[in-house]
Every structure is written in C-alpha cells, then in structure tokens.
Design goal:
The chain has 471 residues and is α/β, with parallel strands linked by helices. It is built from 15 helices and eleven strands. The chain has two domains: 34-238, Thiolase/Chalcone synthase (Peroxisomal Thiolase, Chain A, domain 1), CATH 3.40.47.10; 242-428, Thiolase/Chalcone synthase (Peroxisomal Thiolase, Chain A, domain 1, 3-Layer(aba) Sandwich).
C-alpha cells in the first residue's frame, strides 16, 4: 500500500507543479477587487403578490383554459415562493397588456435611485468619484441607455468607463464584476459601480403557452447596486475580496443555446420560453465551470487526495467536479471520487432559479440543509430576481451573522445562452451591517414553511376539470 501511495504521489507531482505555476501567474496578473458595500432593493408593500392578488390575476386572464389554469396554479403551488414577493403595480391593477415604454423605465428608475442613493450615502463615496459603471438589465433596452440615465441623474464625470449589458440573464452580475476586474488592471485606485436588475412589467407573459407561463411563477421585482474598488488602502473598509471568478458559456451548442429564449407565442404575445433541455444544459455548464474553478479555490491537500484516489481505483482522472452528480439528472452509477468543495468553502451562495435548481446544485455539491437555507429562504421571501438574486442570498447570510472574517463564500449563477458563472469571495471583516432583510430576518427560517398558495389553491390537485369554475 505504501508503494502504491508513493507511486501515486510521483505521478501527481508534475500535475501539481503545473497547477501551482498557473495559479501563481494568474495571481500576479490579477488586480485586487474589493466590495465596499452593496444595496438590495425592497419594493413597497402594495406590490406584494399574495394569494389574493394571484387569484385575481389568474381569473382575469381569459387566454387560459381550464387545463392551462390548473397547470399555472400547480406551478405557483410548487415553485417555492411565499406571499411577500413583489411584482409591478400595473400587473396588480390589471394593466399588464398595456405596459408602455415609460412604465418600464419608471419601474427601473425606482430601483436605480433607491439603491444608488443608499450606496453613496452609506459609503461616503461621491458619484463624481466613480470611474467605472456597469449596468445590466437583460430584457429591456432604451436609447439613450439605462446607464446614461444613471450618469445624467448623478452628474457623473465625462471620462467614466461605461458598460450597458443586455441579454445576459441571471448570470449578469458576476459577468459585470468580471468586466470590472479586468478594467481594474488598467486603472489604479479606482471605484466601480455594478447595477443589476430585470424588467418584469414589460415582459410579463399573458398567453397560454405552458413553457412560457413558468416565468411568471418565479420572476419577481428586485435589484442591487454594488460598489467595488481596487484601492488597497481601503481594504480595511471592504466587506469582501474577490479570490477567483470563472465564466462558462455553452452558446456553441444548439441545445444549450435554445433552452431559454425570449420569443413570441402563436398569438404574438412575448414571453420567455424554458425548454425541457434546460436541466441538461445546466448540468453541463455547472460541471465545466467548477472543473475550472476547483484548482483555483481548493486547498492543495484536497486536490492531491482527489488525484491519488482517482489513480488508486484504476480509472482515468475524472473531470472536476464529478459531472455525474451535477444538476438535472444523468446517471449516478460511477463510483469515482468526488471533489469536496466544502474543504475550501465555508458558505454557498446559490442562484434562486427555483426549488428544483437549488435542490439539484445542493445534491451535486453534497450540501446540507444549513448550506441551502439562504437560497431557499431568499426564494421564498423575494422570489427569483434574476441577476440580483445571489446578493439577496448573501444578504441573508449577513443578516444571520454567519459571515466572519476570513470565511470563503462560493457564489454560483446560471443564465440564458446557456451560461454558468461562479466566484469565490473572502470575507474581510465580521459582517453585521443592516440590509434588506432587517424587517423580517427574525421570522426566518420558520419552523414550518407553510405554503399559502397550497392552502388557497389546493383544489388544483383535483384531476377532474369539471370541478373547476372561474366563479
């Protein structure tokens, strides 16, 4: 046995040395990137999508037949959200089919100015000090750009570096941070602001295509603004430091490209189509992404263990991580080793794409209910707020006083295309700042996560359509 261990070690040394050289070179090239502060948006209470509002909305949609209604209600019941998520006022009032360009702009302006005002106030940084601005709203674009509206409102400098992203999906906030990190390489002691949200009102689907109805069950109003810097003299004020970021894009695959697409249905109604191939695309994207991320964030001891165990069981070294345990299915028949991400990560900040997404990623990474709690509770309280979702999850961890100096937080997001982006943050100080969870954190996690939609719409479990009436 000792001879086998020695032989495995000898075989592993070249790979280990190669990884170390690569990591050292990347570290030398990479600029420091710190988060000084972030703010998540909390809409007013009159925009909450409770069971009463849901009932009124569903019953007034005349495009839905009995079977479509039952499908929609089942989806709401099973999606994992509660009664306190937020939707646009005009949808609540019944005007979703007549939303104008101005309605869309007003929806985003409310979020922009609320979070940015708080961000500048909390940090003492002036808008005139911002060197880089990145704005991402995937499904709404204007001329001038949304970024230009922010620059005009806050009278930012003429030489500010501006990026206005669209179509990047739920993974957009980490893509924005990757852009900032790269621009930081050319500018010393700079400030950057990342603004992430989604346009819900103009993209609310009012048709009866089941593949497009699901989006209304999950996506809700929200957004965040993040202040970053590469100034090392401000590290004592920082909340987080970026340790590594990886982006994976499967757009070359037709199946992956077409699994999440904005389109019009047969009636000409615009919506967002989610195909049955999405879980498989997510599986592959996550596996490819973490394979690249693992050597950058895991301790050498864990990488060495993985290599040795792989050799001892006489099989080719499998990819990092074990793709057979990734999201969305596939067989779990292989007996090869798995990468233990918890050896290098203290907290997991998962995108709230839905209950099934959270469960699948948790199973893939062998996470506990404690690890999954922040994502589950964020989905229940705020729903899927697209690119801003992981920051609400991070806010939950902070509000629960989980984040201590030196902790490592792995953030994982998915997006149409199909994309997976992930990064590792190091907590720079014990975090206990007040945030968007301040008014409700004491209620989470509840002892019994009651599903009010199940109670309201329990009749949808009745398979007999004749028992249903709109009255």
């Amino acid at each position: 046995m000792e001879l086998l261990m020695m032989a495995a070690l000898v075989l592993a040394i070249p790979l280990i040395m190669s990884c170390l050289v690569k990591l050292v070179n990347q570290w030398k090239k990479q600029s420091s990137c710190y988060i000084l502060h972030y703010e998540c948006f909390k809409p007013s209470d009159d925009r909450k999508f409770d069971t009463e509002i849901a009932d009124k909305y569903i019953m007034r949609n005349k495009n839905l037949g009995i079977h479509e209604l039952k499908f929609l209600l089942r989806s709401i019941v099973n999606c994992g959200i509660g009664e306190e998520t937020y939707i646009p006022k005009k949808v609540i009032l019944g005007g979703e089919e007549s939303l104008s360009l101005l309605d869309g702009i007003s929806e985003l302006d409310e979020f922009f100015y609320d979070t940015l005002d708080k961000l500048f106030h909390q940090t003492g940084v002036s808008p005139s000090e911002i060197d880089i601005l990145v704005v991402n709203v995937s499904m709404f674009s204007t001329e001038p750009s949304l970024a230009a509206r922010i620059i005009n409102r806050y009278k930012m400098r003429e030489d500010i570096k501006v990026f206005n992203l669209s179509g990047m999906g739920c993974s957009a906030s980490l893509i924005s941070i990757d852009i900032v990190q790269n621009v930081f390489k050319s500018y010393k002691k700079a400030f950057a602001v990342v603004v992430a949200s989604e346009s819900i009102g103009p993209n609310w689907y009012s048709g009866n295509d089941k593949s497009m109805m699901l989006v209304n069950c999950l996506f809700r109003c929200g957004g965040c603004s993040i202040l970053l810097t590469n100034n090392p003299t401000l590290r004592h004020r920082a909340m987080f430091r970026l340790k590594g970021l990886v982006r994976t894009h499967l757009g070359a695959s037709d199946e992956a490209h077409e699994c999440a697409v904005q389109k019009e249905d047969e009636q000409g109604l615009r919506g967002f189509h989610l195909s049955r191939n999405l879980p498989r695309a997510a599986t592959r994207a996550l596996s490819e992404n973490l394979r690249e991320l693992a050597p950058k964030i895991l301790p050498l001891k864990e990488l060495l263990r993985y290599i040795i165990v792989s050799w001892l069981i006489r099989q080719p070294s499998p990819p990092l991580p074990d793709s057979s345990k990734s999201t969305g299915g596939g067989g779990n028949n292989r007996t090869g080793p798995t990468v233990r991400f918890k050896t290098g990560v203290d907290h997991f900040c998962l995108h709230t794409g839905g209950k099934a997404v959270i469960n699948s990623v948790g199973k893939s990474l062998e996470l506990t209910e404690y690890d999954l709690e922040p994502a589950r509770m964020t989905l229940h309280r705020f729903g899927n707020t697209s690119a801003s979702s992981p920051w609400y999850v991070l806010g939950y961890m902070e509000a629960k006083r989980r984040l201590k100096k030196g902790d490592k937080v792995l953030m994982i997001t998915f997006g149409a295309g199909f994309k997976c982006s992930s990064c590792l943050w190091e907590v720079m100080r014990d975090l206990k700042d007040d945030n968007v969870w301040r008014d409700c954190i004491d209620r989470y996690p509840p002892k019994d996560l009651v599903n009010p939609f199940m109670e309201k719409f329990s009749w949808v479990m009745d398979e007999n359509p004749e028992n249903f009436s709109r009255d």
